[in-house]
Amino acid sequence: MTAAPAGSGVVVVKVGGSEGIDYDAVCQDVAALHAEGRRLVLVHGGSAETNRVAEALGHPPRFVTSPSGFTSRFTDRATLEIFEMVYCGKMNKGLVERLQRLGVDAVGLSGLDGRIFEGRHKTSVRSVEDGKTVILRGDHTGTVERVNDRLLRLLMEHGYLPVLTPPGASFEGVAINVDGDRAAAAVATALGAEALVLLSNVPGLLRDFPDEASLIRAIPAGAVEDYLEVAQGRMKKKVLGAAEAVAGGVGRVIFGDARGAEPVRRALAGEGTIVS
Fold first, then answer.
1. Domain ranges, ordered by start, for the chain
2. Contact in structure between 242 and 273 (CB atoms under 8 Å)
3. I need a labelling partner for 181 at 20 to 30 A (CA). Which of 32, 71, 198, 199 fits?
4. Per the confidence metrics, is the pTM higher than 0.90?
5. Quick one: which of 266, 276, 193 has its CA closest to 32?
């Protein structure tokens, strides 16, 4: 077993919602680190399960690509309610149950609870369709601009492990879909975390996706945004989140692999793509 670096700082772990992720392994690793006295916050997604549920309910997902090349889910009110059903319900409580069974007093909260994730409500989004930029209205998305770190610190100081998920809250108190990776970066920044671990179903940032032999081992902190061109699909948001985290003072960001044993510990030990 590889040892995680010593330190008393907070580690924020974000685990994605794509196919192939071993949530049991993630929870076992988080529980073991928590038992060793590490202070952790777990943030999670649930995109693959949301897609399945949305299809089954007759409201299939719609994805849009912005003029700058970022792909995201178009979130009308019906989609937001499906999103809440899966993220706040099945995914969040499933992770909390796993952690409780492993002896961790986990508390599952959405970013809407206590305004943990708070930002401006974007009612429209620009999308590139057939080579033209169009404006889609009725969107319920936003970007995390403020984190209720007092609530998170209160929980951690009393031995609880926060398990967080989108959606967040707008400044007016409306539920908004926020990107999980960027939300995790905002949490890490607000808590002054020593590390942000972004786990997905690949070993890290790949120069030639999906060739896993093309793993990029290290990225200089000042050059993170230069790698946006390399990132494919949702990995672009992870790179953007990493850039925001290091700019906000987070010690290091690691893109790690959530498909095997001890994914957090291995990432902290240097496996994956390290931004520092």
1. 10-275
2. no
3. 32
4. yes
5. 266
Q: How far apart are CA 54 and CA 165, in angstroms?
A: 18
CB of 151 closer than 8 Å to CB of 116:
yes
Close Cβ partners of 139 (under 8 Å, ≥ 6 residues apart)? 74, 75, 76, 122, 123, 124, 125
Do residues 38 and 268 touch, judged by C-beta distance below 8 A? no
Longest dimension (CA), the chain: 53
Domain 10-275 has CATH 3.40.1160.10: yes
Check the CA dihedral 190-4-106-26 and report its sign: positive
| pLDDT per position as a tens digit, 160-185 | 999 999 999 999 999 999 999 999 99
Mean pLDDT calculated for residue range 231-247: 92
Tokens of 101: 């069974």
Q: Kindly state the tokens that stand for 67.
A: 């003029």
Ramachandran angles phi, psi of 195, nearest 5°: -155, 145
